[in-house]
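Attaching the record inline, Q. Sequence:
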Amino acid sequence: MILTSEKVLEIHKLIISNFGGTDGVLCDGTIDYLVDQINAEPELFSKAAIALHIVANCHPFLDANKRSAFQIAESILNSEGLTINANEGTIIRMLLRIASYECQIYDIKIWLEKNTRGL
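Structure, as predicted:
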């Protein structure tokens, strides 16, 4: 899967329209950086971890950064027939840890590997 800025914005708009929040981008440069980092990474779980880390930490959107981070990562995994297989509480705790700078990309990658299964 080649990620584009347009796809990231589409995912964010879908999150806002389905679950509420304020639509808008704080920093186009962060989205461009996200896309470049993901597309440069050859390993699938690292791609998804980068998405979670950058969006949840760098806040490119006005609202729904953690939800968008999760959906972008899930889209990356779905493109290869995988899905995150963790309950909502576990996912929320992990997203809060990421957003609180309590884990790095490697830690997120390990979590994803342990909490992912085939579709």
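The chain has a mean pLDDT of 96. The chain has one domain: 5-118.

More tomorrow.
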